[in-house]
Amino acid sequence: MRPLDMADPTSPDFWTRVLQTLGDVGLKALGVAITLAVCFVIAWILRVIIRRVVKRIVQGAKKKADVADTRAIDRTPLASVRIVQRSRTLGTILSNIVNVTMVIIAILLSVQIVNPELLGSLALLSAAVGAGLGFGAQNIVKDVLNGIFIVAEDQVGIGDVVDLGLASGVVEYVSVRITHVRDVNGTLWYVRNGEVTRIGNMSQGWSRVVLDLSLPLDVDIDEVEHIASGVASELTHDPTWRSRIIGDPEVWGLETIGGDTLVFRLVLKAKPSTKEDVAAELRRRLREEMRARDIDLPGLASVELTGVEGALRVRGVNPPTRPHPIPERPTWHPRRGAHTATAPEDAEPDTPSTEAP
Fold it and tell me: Quick check: helix, strand or coil at residue 180?
C-alpha cells in the first residue's frame, strides 16, 4: 500500500482509521466524563455528610442551651458558643480539603485515561516542581498545619480576647492560615498561624478581679475585712450581677504596709466578658460603703498579677491554718549503759548488791 492511500478519502482504510480514532477519542472522553462525574458525586456526598455532622452538632448545642437561634447562644455558657464556632470552622476546612483532593484525583485519573505515558512524565515533572516548591512553600504548610491544630484544639475562637505575642486584641476571623486580630486602637492585625508559638486567651473559663484598697494605718483590719467581704457578697447575690460572677469572693487580706497606708486585697471571679463591668461596680460599692462608715479610702485600684506572684495565686489563696498547740518538750532519758548521764534528783541512789554472783 502506498503512503498516499492513507490520506485518500476514497480509500477504505482511511475511513476505518477515522472511525477507529473517533471511537478511541469518544471512549476516552466518556471515561473522563465518568471520572469527573464520579469524583463530583463523591465530593458532594462527603460535603453533605460534613454539613449534616456540623448541623447536628449545632442543633445539639441549641437544644442544650434551649434556644432557637444560634445568636441566642451568646447568652448561654461559653462552651456552647465555642462548640458551634469550632464545628463550623472545621466543617469549612474539611469541605475545602475534600474539594481540593477530589479535583487532584479527577485530574490524575483523566490524564491516565487520555494518555498513560503522559502521567509518568507528569509525575516526574510534579516531583521536580514539588521539590522546588517544597522549600518555598514550607511556611505555608506550617501555617496550615498549625491553623488546623489551633481550630481543632479550640485554642482561639471568634470574639476571644487573646495575646498572640505578635498582636493582642479581639479575634475577628480564624482560618487555617491566618488569624485576624483587631487591637484596642482599631488596627486589624493579620497573624500567620505558623508564627504563633504561644496563645494567651483571656475569654475562656473565668477571669479574676483583683482590687487593692489603700487604707490609713490606724484602720481596724478586721472591720475592713468584714466590710469588704460583705460588699462583695452583696454584689454576688444581686440578681442583676449574679449571672456575671462565678463563685464566692475571696479576701486575701493585708498585702503590704508602706508609708502611711495599708494595702488590703479583695478578689472576685467573673466571666471574662464582664470582668471590667464587675470590677467597676465593686469599686463603686466599696467606695460608697467606706464613705458611709467614715473610713478614708486614699486609693482603690484593679491589679493584674504577673510573674511569680501571679503563678502562685492561680488556684487562689490558701485558707489560714489553725494554730496547733506546741507540744511539751519530752523528758530526756539517758541511754542504757551511758556513763556520763546523771541520775535525777528524786531518784534513789543505787545500793550495792549483797547477792552473791
Answer: strand
Alpha helices in the chain (DSSP H): 12-65, 78-114, 116-136, 138-152, 221-236, 275-292, 307-312
Give the three-state DSSP class for 317. Answer: coil
Report CA dihedral (30, 33, 38, 43) to the nearest 10 degrees: 170
The model's pTM is 0.55
- Total domains in the chain come to 3
Whether 191 and 222 map to the same domain: the answer is no
Q: Residue 47 in contact with residue 91, Cβ under 8 Å? A: no
Q: Which amino acid is at 343?
A: A
Chain center to CA of 262: 38
Written as tens digits, the pLDDT of the chain (357 aa) is 444 445 556 666 766 776 677 777 777 788 888 888 888 888 889 888 888 887 777 776 666 655 555 555 554 455 556 666 667 777 777 787 788 888 888 887 787 777 777 666 666 666 666 666 666 677 887 888 888 888 777 788 778 889 888 888 988 888 778 889 999 898 999 999 888 888 888 887 788 888 888 888 888 888 888 888 889 889 988 888 888 888 888 888 888 887 788 888 888 888 887 888 899 999 999 989 888 888 888 888 887 777 666 666 665 555 444 444 545 545 545 555 444 444 444 444 444 444 443
Assess contact for 14 and 6: CB atoms under 8 A.
Answer: yes
Residue 288, domain extent: 207-312
What cell was used for 13?
482504510
Q: Closest Cα to residue 233, out of 219, 220, 250, 221?
A: 250
Same-domain status, 262 and 286: yes
One-letter identity of residue 90: L
Q: How many CB atoms lie within 10 A of CB 86?
A: 21
Nearest CA-CA partner of 243 in 277, 212, 210? 277
* 22 and 130 part of one domain: yes
| CA separation for the pair 138, 148 (Å, rounded) | 15
Residues 171 and 286 in one domain: no
